[in-house]
Amino acid sequence: METDTKDRLTRADWLAHGLRTLAREGANALKVGDLAAGLDVSRGSFYWHFKDATDFRVQLLQLWQERVTDQVFREIDAAIVGPARLTHLMKLAFNEDRSLDRAIRALAETDATAAEMVASVDARRIDYLAKILIESGVESRRAQSRAEFLYWAYIGQTAVLNPAHSVITERDIDDLSALFTR
């Protein structure tokens, strides 16, 4: 990196680098020195933008929540109505790269702040699924348990190690979506 590029490195650059690093290498790679080396800058650049490593992790978790939950909800709400909303959400969710999500969940096993954020995101996602199910005609008393089951399937899919069973086709998603909205 050239000096003028280093001078313009932003908080957003650091956070984007942190999310990429976390997804590829896990939480142990989120050391200030390693992150700075990856950006070809000094550690001082990090401390210009963040109070400390904890501040960085909190902002990283907030950005993760914004990108993979809040932004997705807004996009779906703006673009799709009715039962097609569930099918669209399922196609997005079951076909995305979830390496970052797995890394965040692994971090949550040892980091109380991450665990709190993951629990909050999980609850919001389940509530959103229940809302979509209700809007699709599912009785509200049934929507919550169906939403939970769908979410468990989503979370569990990443644990399947056999590639033959870890992919779900769009046709299968259409069928499953119809099953959950009856």
Structural summary, described in words:
With about 180 residues, the chain is mostly helical. The chain has two domains: about 1-50, Arc Repressor Mutant, subunit A; about 60-180, Tetracycline Repressor, domain 2 (Orthogonal Bundle), CATH 1.10.357. The protein is built from eleven helices and no strands. It has helices at about 5, 10-25, 30-40, 45-50, 55-80, 85-95, 100-110, 110-135, 140-155, 165, 170-180. Helix 2 (about 10-25) crosses helix 5 (about 55-80), helix 2 (about 10-25) packs across helix 7 and helix 8 packs across helix 9 (about 140-155). The chain is elongated and about 55 Å long. Mean pLDDT is about 90; it is low at about 1-5. InterPro entries: Homeodomain-like_sf, HTH_TetR. This is TetR/AcrR family transcriptional regulator. Pfam families: TetR_N. Keywords: DNA-binding.
Spans with pLDDT under 50 lasting ≥5 residues? 1-6
The CATH architecture name of the largest domain reads Orthogonal Bundle
- The whole-number mean of residue pLDDT values reads 88
Radius of gyration: 19 Å
- The count of DSSP E runs of length 2 or more, i.e. the number of strands, is 0
CATH class of the largest domain: Mainly Alpha
Largest sheet: none
Class based on secondary structure composition and strand pairing? mainly alpha
Question: H/E series, N to C?
Answer: HHHHHHHHHHH
Ends distance: 56 Å
- Which range does the strand content fall in? under 5%
The total domain count is 2
Shape, per Cα inertia axes = elongated
Helix content: over 70%
Count of helical segments?
11
Q: From the 3D structure, determine the CATH topology of the largest domain.
A: Tetracycline Repressor, domain 2
Pfam family, one: TetR_N
Protein name: TetR/AcrR family transcriptional regulator
Keywords: DNA-binding
InterPro entries: Homeodomain-like_sf (IPR009057), HTH_TetR (IPR001647)
